[in-house]
C-alpha cells in the first residue's frame, strides 16, 4: 500500500495508470487471504517463539482476546479500498454508491485509447469502441467527428502512433486529477498568491498567476527580458511621456492641508 500511495502522488500519474495500480494492489490483498504476507509471517513466527524483535511476548496476556479472522479482515479491506478508490466522490457522500458504476463506465471508455486493451484482430471501423469514444467526447465537450477519424487511423496503424486529431481527447484524459493531492497543491499555491496584500486581484489574473505557479518553469530557467521589454514598450516606464505622472507630494500636501488641520 505504501508503494501505491507514492505512485498516486506523482505529478505524471494518469487515471488509466492509477486504475491499473489500484487493481494490482487489490489483487495482492485478495491473495493474502490464502497466503500471508512477509510481515504477517514474521509476526506469526514471533508469536510461536514468544519473542518479537527482542521483546518477550507473554502468551498469558493474550487470553480473552478475540482472534482476528484473517480472510474476513482482508475481504473487508478489499471492500473498503474499492468503495473509496473506485468512485468519483468521497465514500461518505450519499451519491458515492451510485457513482461507483459511473467510475467503472468512465474507465471502460478510457480503455479504448489503450491499444493493449483492444480485442484481438480489431479493425476499423470498430463500432463498439467508437460508441465509447463518443461518450468520452461528450464528457469533455470535444468534437466527435474529427476525433473519430483519428481513432480509426489509430486502429489502422495498430496503435503505433497517436494521430493529431485524436490527441485532444488523449490530452483531456491524461489531465484528469487522480487524487486530492493536485487540489491540495492548488489551494496551497492560491494561499501564497492571493495574500491579504493581493486581495484585489481579479479572477483572470489570479488564474494566470496560479497557472504560472503550478506548472511554470523554475526561476533559474525563466528569462524575464522579453516580458520586461514588452512592459517598457507599452508605455509602462516611469519617464514615458504617455504615462500618468506621479503627483508631487509637496503639492498634494498643500492641496489637502486645510482638511488635514481638522484632524
TrEMBL record:
GO terms for molecular function: SUMO ligase activity. One of its GO terms (biological process) is protein sumoylation. It comes from the Eukaryota. This is HAT C-terminal dimerisation domain-containing protein.
Amino acid at each position: 500500500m505504501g508503494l501505491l500511495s507514492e505512485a498516486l502522488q506523482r505529478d505524471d500519474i494518469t487515471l488509466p495508470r492509477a486504475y491499473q495500480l489500484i487493481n494490482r494492489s487489490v489483487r495482492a490483498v485478495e491473495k493474502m487471504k490464502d497466503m500471508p504476507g512477509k510481515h504477517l509471517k514474521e509476526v506469526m513466527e514471533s508469536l510461536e517463539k514468544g519473542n518479537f524483535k527482542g521483546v518477550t511476548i507473554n502468551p498469558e496476556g493474550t487470553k480473552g482476546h478475540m482472534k482476528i479472522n484473517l480472510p474476513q479482515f482482508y475481504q473487508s479491506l478489499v471492500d473498503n479500498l474499492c468503495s473509496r478508490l473506485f468512485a468519483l466522490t468521497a465514500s461518505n457522500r450519499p451519491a458515492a454508491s451510485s457513482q461507483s458504476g459511473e467510475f467503472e463506465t468512465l474507465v471502460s471508455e478510457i480503455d479504448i485509447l489503450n491499444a493493449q486493451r483492444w480485442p484481438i484482430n480489431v479493425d476499423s471501423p470498430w463500432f463498439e469502441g467508437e460508441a465509447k469514444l463518443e461518450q468520452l467526447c461528450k464528457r469533455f465537450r470535444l468534437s466527435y467527428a474529427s476525433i473519430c477519424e483519428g481513432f480509426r487511423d489509430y486502429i489502422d496503424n495498430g496503435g503505433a502512433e497517436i494521430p493529431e486529431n485524436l490527441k485532444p481527447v488523449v490530452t483531456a484524459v491524461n489531465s484528469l486529477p487522480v487524487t486530492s493531492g493536485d487540489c491540495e497543491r492548488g489551494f496551497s499555491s492560491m494561499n501564497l498568491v492571493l495574500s491579504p496584500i493581493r486581495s484585489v486581484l481579479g479572477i483572470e489574473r489570479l488564474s494566470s498567476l496560479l497557472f504560472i505557479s503550478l506548472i511554470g518553469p523554475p526561476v533559474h530557467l525563466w528569462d524575464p527580458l522579453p516580458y520586461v521589454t514588452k512592459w517598457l514598450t507599452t508605455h509602462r516606464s516611469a519617464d514615458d511621456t504617455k504615462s500618468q505622472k506621479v503627483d508631487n507630494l509637496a503639492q498634494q500636501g498643500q492641496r489637502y492641508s486645510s482638511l488635514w488641520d481638522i484632524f
